[in-house]
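User: Design a sequence. Structure:
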């Protein structure tokens, strides 16, 4: 089956391509600020943090998120996903692609759990779409706990 979307590890030299999408999240963001953020997010230990873009077959970017790997006091690693920016498209395909890449990244990095942090401006539509995409991915049948929370820890709710 041909995949509609695929992941792309965003690098500083390609940050400009994602700038329009980043401005959907924060219209006051300048190109200079954005390239600095991407540089900061992609610097350091390989695979401990970064930015993932979700592109279609034509190379158009439709979503992106930053991630980092944290260690939990109770043991194991947690994949912390934040700065999720999605260009709203009809249907659930983009959200399914995002969740597929989050789950792939968690398995690839040996994470015991996933925390998806949504900006307060994300709205109920995005939260609901992400919940549905995790449910559709069968997360409940896996031993990988997934949590959704609003930035600043407000309104934290487990997806189990």
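Assistant: Done.
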């Amino acid at each position: 089956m041909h995949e509609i979307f695929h992941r792309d590890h965003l690098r500083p030299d390609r940050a400009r391509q994602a700038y329009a999408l980043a401005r959907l999240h924060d219209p006051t963001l300048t190109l200079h600020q954005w390239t600095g953020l991407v540089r900061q997010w992609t610097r350091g230990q390989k695979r401990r943090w970064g930015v993932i873009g979700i592109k279609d077959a034509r190379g158009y970017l439709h979503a992106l998120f930053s991630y980092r790997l944290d260690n939990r006091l109770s043991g194991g690693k947690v994949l912390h996903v934040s700065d999720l920016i999605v260009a709203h498209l009809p249907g659930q395909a983009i959200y399914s692609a995002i969740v597929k890449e989050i789950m792939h990244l968690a398995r690839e990095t040996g994470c015991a759990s996933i925390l998806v942090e949504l900006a307060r401006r994300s709205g109920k539509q995005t939260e609901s779409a992400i919940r549905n995409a995790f449910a559709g991915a069968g997360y409940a049948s896996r031993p990988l706990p997934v949590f959704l929370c609003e930035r600043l820890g407000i309104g934290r709710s487990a997806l189990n």
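The CA atoms of residues 103 and 114 lie 8 Å apart. The domain at 5-158 is CATH 3.40.630.30 (Aminopeptidase).
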